[in-house]
Write a structure and sequence with these properties.
Blueprint: H1 14-18, H2 21-32, H3 35-50, H4 60-91, E1 108-110, H5 116-121, H6 128-135, H7 139-150, H8 155-162, H9 166-183, H10 191-207, H11 210-216, E2 217-225, E3 236-239, H12 241-250, E4 258-263, E5 266-272, E6 278-287, E7 290-297, H13 300-304, H14 309-312
Parallel strand pairs: 2-7
Antiparallel strand pairs: 1-4, 2-3, 4-5, 5-6, 6-7
Length: 318
Amino acid sequence: MDERILDAGPAGGAEPFEAHRAHLRAVAYRMLGSLAEAEDAVQDTWLRYDRADTSAVENLGGWLTTVTGRVCLNQLRSRARRREESYEARAEGAGAGGGPPRIPDPLIGRADAPDPEQEVLLADSVGLALMVVLESLSPAERVSFVLHDMFAVPFEEIAPLIGRTAPATRQLASRARRRVQGRAPAPDRDLARQRVAVDAFFAATRTGDLDALLAVLHPDVVLRADGSAGRDRRPVVLTGARTVAGQAVMFRGLSPYARPALVNGAAGAVVIGADGRPVSVMAFTVTGGAIVAIDVLTDPDRLAAMDLRAFADRPPAD
């Protein structure tokens, strides 16, 4: 699809674009892992659409998806350059290394009241663990995988975006798919079954019951916690049931303040401290009734930017 920026204006005005806005937000969120950046990408797509002659475009949805993909690719490449510059600057100092991927923005909803707008963003059940793995892909890998595997864009249309041939683009998507399947197992589709495992985790944590924690954690469970720039926190990755269980027991004092939540459409929790301030957002991946991944967002700045009042006003789980 050739993105032509002409003066003729879009065919049909704003209404055809608005019909695709929710879909484009879903594309951009999967690409960028940031709600604010996703909104910016959709707005950039609108500006390009507004300046383009689309009268000859037969599949406007496909055209807009490709334009959004190009916008997101530019943002991902810019982000990758900033990370490289940051890494080089740290390497000149105390020898800090790379570190785990950033935890993307979670989509948070009340467990008893799903948000229809979020359901559009999560139509393909994009759990936070999957989003974390996507953060580890190169820009070209991420664009190829997301557009093809999640939105069925043909490789022939993705290839010009990333400057590769269609076969090379197929190989990029295949490599990304293997990494995703190996590091982000598909969660149980039964939300009630997920909640049973998460509730058991918090019940065992509150009492410090190590055996009960080990029973609900997969032997190879992974816990990822974000760091926060400019603070003393650093990203953390823990692996293995006994290690994760030991960490959970150490923070047992926070467990009574956990409120049930939907995090990226899966069973999770928002922890609100005794002072009413958010402490963390916890996303769980439950497979076969066992917790295989826990992703924890603790950055106070990012938490403060979220609207979590609906959880602060609700009592903690029993």
